[in-house]
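Backbone geometry:

***
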Amino acid sequence: MRIGELAAQTGLTRDALRFYERTGLITGQRLANGYRDFPPETVPWLAYVRTAQALGFSLAEIARTGEELRHAPDSAAALSALFEEKIAAIDARTAQLAALRADLTARVGSGCPLRAAG
């Protein structure tokens, strides 16, 4: 299917699809007339990409694991492992943010915010 049809079916812009193609998330073939042609399985793959983004995965993470997941014999187990990794990363970031918040709270009203809190 051509890029306009793919855009209509996925709700993505043509620019987004071109970006995804440049970054290797999707692959289209060039027809003799210069148009891009994408296989039908691109539509569910892009739904996966959008869902993964909504769950906090970066495009780099999706690109890195996408091909592996497409060919995994048990994608549920593979996805669960990815989710557990993401949860651990979120927990670590949450702890970092809590420490930062505590540091900032300790500095409120202390004058120069660059002095060590004590």
Q: What stands out?
A: The CA atoms of residues 10 and 47 lie 7 Å apart. DSSP finds five helices and two strands in the chain. The two ends are 63 Å apart (CA to CA).
